[in-house]
């Protein structure tokens, strides 16, 4: 029988455990059994009464001041490594003293595929989190769910009412307006970032001004809202700007002189920076083969580890592209000047020379740290004209020696790509064109040219070379990984496709060509877009990681982002690693960065996700503003999502997304199967499937929230026939099941 522990021994034992501790845990640790547990319980009660312990019999105990394993936290910002950090809330207040522990948010994908990924959070959000103690001063947290009204910040527009100023939130998930403090320095129509204030549950919600970011009727305000929602840093600190302005031309000593090679850049017509250039020539040692050069701006020569620019770039993780602006990862002095491969200007670069045989297979490669000079700047359309035999006069001198060899080399590489069979999902990407005043002038789907695919294929090959080289030198690196689709999604896809007569046999090895075959089965059929959308929804999300699991979508065993160090921090780490292992200089990767690669990979995966959310929400707001004058018009679209709230629809012409509330599908009860991506009417059996064509009427547009509300005009299938919806809201009703009350609106 063990001896009774002292108070200090109990406190030390609890402090050493990663979570909460029960009385049974303490008894077991000190070998206390039988009747001796009675004095132990008495001692623990005394310690609780003295304030030494917190917790209860049911939830377990913890040391005074320790945090519960499940706690409410408020996201307060990001640390210098780029991770989201939080503070715990107790009794509605944030613990923010110098002795209170820091909570670092873990948003990496769950290791067990059966577990749901953590919901996204941003600075100002409040969430319920599961905590794991690392040491006395630090916890790691995984978000369980976001708590919309439990604190944090809110962004919205000021409305003046009889009882004062109110904030109407821009987030469509916010259900309440917020009353602003009486001394708030703001006017009707201002766009504010505010702090939510605690208060009685049934009273009006209140908020306090944090930042006035301009007028809500400014067309550029929609991007500002999305930037503020995601906590994107937009202003470079003074130290970063000073460092950028002080940067001098890179040292040319020891560099390979590649200026005699006529590299060219091929980019969108409106591109301001050019971070990659290409050149090809026939390989004299391989009949029908080519030497393919890819040169990338040498950002590592200017942004050194530990510098102010490096710290800021790591925090940002990537550039963010909105319809009316770019939030860059690096100051303009670098991104649009020193690191842009401008026509006719000598620039430092990191280049790879690849040997490709007549079948398109890469037979070897070598990296160089050199100097290059772009011979010409072409847009995709200009390059495509040359490839099609109609070379623009401005580039006629380059056509035979540069452009046509480039085209022939790509044809070889494309044949090898087709044999490899990466995943092919044709999903049109729309572009929003705006004028200087922030007004949308055009929404269009740019044609997918072979010139786009040429650059893409050469960049993919260069990325593979980077990964292979670092692996050969046994150097840790950040891979771009894409996991195979989860089994449960594949089973759901199989069930879903069976109704279309598209067969997916389970149990076979999952390869991209399997999914390509499914889409080929549906090619030419009316349900082809439905199958393509379902296949896309089945795929996992690509992320950055130091553990290589390959890239499923590209069907590649190893892949690392190398070709865009101006706008992606992961690429910059790969550049530095190559500089180090190939002896290209003393400004390569440091030991500290090499050891931190796993953390950096997680951080840049998060910033990439944050950027995607900001870009999408900004686009939604601009599209909603563009559609606001078209209330009552009918549009063709496709079902892009199914939920208990209703059907999400994407319009064919503009790509705008909106919702048909479930209450506007009729009076019968509808059942949403979100996993299998369809909705069924309980009485009529009408089915709505993801990807199906529908005709909708626009009923409401709220640009501030980026929301569109539709009613159904036509769509859904029953017995193979298309069901027609109401022409006017409320005019079409299906009978409710007998003996059951009509569900009406939710």
Automatic annotation (TrEMBL):
Positions with biased composition (Basic residues): 721-746
Q: What's in the GO CC field?
A: cytosol
Region Disordered: list its residue ranges.
Answer: 96-126, 718-746
Q: Does the keyword Magnesium apply?
A: no
Looking up SUPFAM superfamilies in the UniProt record yields: Nucleic acid-binding proteins
Question: GO MF annotations for this entry?
Answer: exoribonuclease II activity; RNA binding
Keyword annotations for this protein? Answer: Cytoplasm, Exonuclease, Hydrolase, Nuclease, RNA-binding
| PROSITE patterns assigned to the protein according to its UniProt record, in alphabetical order | RIBONUCLEASE_II (PS01175), S1 (PS50126)
According to UniProt, the reaction catalysed is:
Exonucleolytic cleavage in the 3'- to 5'-direction to yield nucleoside 5'-phosphates
Record's subcellular location: Cytoplasm
Q: Which residues form the S1 motif domain?
A: 632-713
Q: What does this protein do?
A: 3'-5' exoribonuclease that releases 5'-nucleoside monophosphates and is involved in maturation of structured RNAs.
Q: What is this protein called?
A: Ribonuclease R
Could you tell me the gene encoding this protein?
A: rnr
């Amino acid at each position: 029988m063990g001896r009774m522990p002292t108070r200090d021994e109990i406190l030390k034992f609890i402090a050493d455990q990663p979570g909460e501790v029960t009385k049974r845990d303490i008894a077991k640790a000190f070998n206390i059994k039988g009747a001796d547990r009675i004095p132990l319980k008495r001692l623990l009660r005394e310690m609780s009464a003295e304030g030494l312990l917190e917790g209860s019999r049911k939830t377990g105990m913890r040391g005074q001041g320790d945090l519960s394993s499940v706690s409410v936290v408020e996201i307060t910002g990001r640390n210098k490594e780029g991770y989201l950090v939080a503070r715990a809330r107790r009794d509605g207040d944030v613990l923010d003293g110098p002795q209170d522990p820091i909570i670092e948010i873990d948003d990496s994908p769950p290791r067990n595929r059966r577990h749901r990924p953590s919901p996204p959070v941003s600075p100002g959000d409040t969430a319920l989190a599961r905590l794991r103690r690392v040491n006395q001063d630090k916890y790691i947290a995984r978000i369980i769910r976001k708590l919309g009204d439990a604190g944090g910040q809110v962004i919205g527009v000021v409305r003046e009412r009889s009882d004062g100023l109110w904030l109407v939130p821009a987030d469509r998930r916010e259900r309440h307006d917020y009353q602003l403090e009486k001394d708030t320095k703001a006017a009707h129509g201002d766009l504010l970032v505010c702090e939510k204030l605690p208060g009685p549950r049934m009273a009006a919600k209140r908020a306090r001004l944090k930042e006035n970011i301009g007028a809500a009727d400014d067309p550029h305000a929609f991007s500002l809202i999305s930037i503020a929602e995601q906590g994107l840093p937009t202003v470079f600190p003074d130290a970063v700007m000073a460092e950028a302005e002080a940067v001098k031309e890179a040292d040319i000593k020891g560099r390979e002189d590649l200026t005699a090679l006529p590299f060219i850049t091929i980019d969108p017509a409106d591109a301001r920076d050019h971070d990659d250039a290409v050149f090809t020539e026939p390989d004299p040692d391989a009949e029908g083969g080519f030497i393919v050069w890819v040169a990338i701006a040498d950002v590592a020569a200017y942004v050194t580890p530990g510098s102010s620019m490096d710290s800021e770039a790591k925090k940002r993780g990537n550039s963010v592209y909105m319809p009316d602006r770019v939030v860059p990862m690096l100051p303009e002095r670098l991104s649009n000047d020193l690191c842009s491969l401008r026509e006719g200007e000598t620039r430092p670069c990191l280049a790879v020379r690849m040997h490709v045989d007549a079948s398109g297979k890469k037979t070897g490669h070598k990296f160089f740290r050199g100097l290059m000079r772009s011979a010409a700047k072409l847009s995709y359309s200009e390059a495509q004209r040359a490839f099609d035999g109609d070379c623009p006069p401005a580039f006629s001198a380059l056509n035979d020696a540069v452009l046509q060899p480039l085209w022939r080399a790509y044809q070889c590489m494309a044949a090898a790509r087709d044999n490899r069979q990466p995943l092919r999902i044709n999903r049109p990407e729309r572009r929003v064109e705006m004028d200087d005043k922030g007004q949308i002038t055009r929404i269009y789907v740019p044609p997918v040219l072979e010139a786009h695919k040429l650059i893409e294929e050469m960049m993919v090959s260069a990325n593979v070379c980077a990964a292979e080289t670092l692996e050969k030198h046994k150097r840790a690196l950040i891979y771009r990984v894409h996991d195979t689709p989860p089994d449960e999604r594949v089973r759901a896809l199989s069930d879903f496709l069976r109704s279309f007569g598209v067969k997916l046999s389970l149990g076979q090895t999952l390869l991209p060509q399997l999914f390509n075959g499914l889409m080929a089965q549906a090619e030419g059929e009316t349900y082809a877009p439905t199958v393509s959308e379902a296949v896309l929804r089945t795929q996992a999300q690509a992320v950055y990681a130091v553990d290589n699991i390959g890239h499923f979508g590209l069907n590649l065993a190893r892949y690392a982002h190398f070709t865009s160090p101006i706008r992606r921090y992961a690429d910059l780490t790969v550049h530095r690693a190559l500089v180090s292992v190939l002896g290209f200089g003393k400004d390569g990767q440091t030991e500290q960065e090499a050891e931190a690669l796993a953390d950096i990979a997680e951080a840049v995966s998060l910033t990439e996700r944050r950027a995607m959310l900001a870009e999408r929400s900004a686009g939604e707001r601009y599209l909603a503003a563009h559609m606001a004058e078209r209330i009552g018009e009918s549009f063709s679209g496709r079902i892009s999502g199914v939920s208990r709230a209703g059907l999400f629809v994407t319009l064919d012409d503009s790509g705008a997304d909106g919702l048909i509330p479930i209450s506007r599908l009729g009076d019968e009860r509808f059942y949403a199967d979100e996993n299998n991506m369809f909705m069924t009417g309980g009485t009529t059996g009408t089915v709505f499937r993801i990807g199906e064509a529908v005709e909708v009427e626009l009923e409401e547009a709220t640009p501030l929230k980026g929301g569109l509300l539709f009613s159904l005009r036509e769509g859904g299938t029953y017995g193979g026939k298309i069901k027609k919806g109401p022409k006017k809201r409320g005019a079409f009703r299906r009978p409710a099941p007998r003996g059951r009350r009509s569900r009406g609106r939710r």
